[in-house]
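FORM 7B: Structural annotation worksheet

SECTION A. Query
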Amino acid sequence: QVQLVESGGGLVQAGGSLRVSCAASGRTGSRYARGWFRQVPGKEREFVGGISWIGGTIYSDSVKGRFTISSDNTKNTVYLQMNSLKPEDTAVYYCAASTMSDSRAVYRDRSDYKYWGQGTQVTVSS
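SECTION B. Predicted structure
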């Protein structure tokens, strides 16, 4: 089992920045990919970005160029740096971990992730 805990959400004005973190504990020995997703009420959880164990990243078109994912594998922590935030970025942000231990792989599909955090609210005011 892997436990994921997000932190760092909050309220920010449009154009501002925020960084959320995701710390993993438990069976963290495998070299798995991590993903970030977000969800607003009434909508499906959508992919934001992901990072492979060795640091390769992918992003959704809606956040590309504004958001950056990084990781510190010594701390089993992944970060989502969000810049130039927009009101439409308001959502609950979830981190996720896959169980497929390909150190180069990173995934967009929710079904590729087995473990999920509890989510952290990010609110961007206009």
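SECTION C. Observations
The chain has a mean pLDDT of 94. DSSP finds no helices and eleven strands in the chain.

SECTION D. Sign-off
Analyst initials: ____
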